[in-house]
């Protein structure tokens, strides 16, 4: 496998702010690692735990595609576009920050922590009109198969972003194998194991481990125990405005 990078769960950056506990796969805030700035256009992969009733106050973003995937609990979202909603486990949220947005998010549950993935991708164009979307996912659609949850095309399954990227989820039973064919052969793959244990060729990945690679048009994963996997197919070349 060419240009392979393994990201073990215990090698991630970690920040404990009391109300927020966050694991950073890539450099973020006070965690700076010059060898982990981004993977292609994938810039941020944060694994966040938010205490009951706590959250992020209003803050700005611009020129970034921001995806949130709740894993446990829910998040209350408000933004400068007039959206006010709650994102629950089993849903996906996307914001194209574009020319600029302000938003806040907090855990509306006063008893239980919420947990979510926060993912940022560099967009393929600057200063788009900000937009917001969220979508309820069907758990049955990912049983031992890839369920597309994000793409570049508004007419495809899942949410869409301003980037030539595809995200898929699978819940893979023990001993089941699953093959993936890249949508764009020039893209790279970043696999993040949410739960369980999988093997990909000679590499074994455990809970919250990740692997990134490119120059491969297809590959297979096999679950050695019941597993949940997030697959992110992303362009490896940065947009011209970053070069």
Automatic annotation (TrEMBL):
Domain Pirin N-terminal: 14-121
Keyword Metal-binding attributed: yes
Pfam families: Pirin, Pirin_C_2
Cofactor(s) it depends on: Fe cation
Note on how the cofactor is bound: Binds 1 Fe cation per subunit.
Keyword field: Iron, Metal-binding
Residue span(s) of domain Quercetin 2,3-dioxygenase C-terminal cupin: 149-234
Family matches, as SUPFAM superfamilies: RmlC-like cupins
Residues where Fe cation binds: 59, 61, 103, 105
InterPro entries: Pirin (IPR012093), Pirin_N_dom (IPR003829), Quercetinase_C (IPR041602), RmlC-like_jellyroll (IPR014710), RmlC_Cupin_sf (IPR011051)
A GO molecular-function annotation: metal ion binding
Domain of life: Bacteria
Coiled coil: none
UniProt similarity note: Belongs to the pirin family.
PANTHER family in the cross-refs: QUERCETIN 2,3-DIOXYGENASE
Name of the protein in question: Pirin family protein
């Amino acid at each position: 496998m060419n240009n392979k990078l393994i990201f073990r769960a215990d090698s991630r950056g970690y920040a404990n702010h009391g109300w927020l506990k966050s694991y950073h796969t890539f450099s973020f805030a006070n965690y700076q690692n010059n060898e982990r700035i981004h993977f292609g256009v994938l810039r941020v992969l944060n694994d966040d735990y938010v205490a009951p009733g706590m959250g992020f106050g209003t803050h700005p973003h611009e020129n970034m595609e921001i995806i949130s995937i709740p894993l446990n609990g829910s998040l209350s979202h408000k933004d400068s576009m007039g959206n006010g909603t709650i994102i629950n486990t089993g849903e996906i949220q996307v914001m194209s920050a574009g020319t600029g947005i302000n938003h806040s998010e907090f855990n509306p549950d006063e008893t239980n922590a919420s947990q979510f993935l926060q993912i940022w991708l560099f967009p393929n164009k600057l200063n788009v009109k900000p937009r917001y979307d969220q979508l309820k996912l069907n758990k049955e659609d990912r049983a031992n198969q890839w369920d597309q949850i994000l793409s570049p095309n508004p007419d495809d399954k899942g949410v869409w972003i301003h980037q030539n990227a595809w995200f898929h989820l699978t819940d893979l039973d023990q001993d089941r194998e699953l093959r993936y064919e890249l949508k764009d052969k020039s893209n790279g793959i970043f696999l993040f194991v949410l739960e369980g244990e999988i093997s990909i060729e000679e590499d074994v990945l455990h809970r919250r481990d990740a692997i990134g690679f490119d120059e491969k048009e297809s590959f297979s994963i096999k679950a050695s125990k019941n597993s949940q996997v997030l697959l992110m197919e992303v362009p490896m070349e940065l947009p011209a405005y970053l070069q």
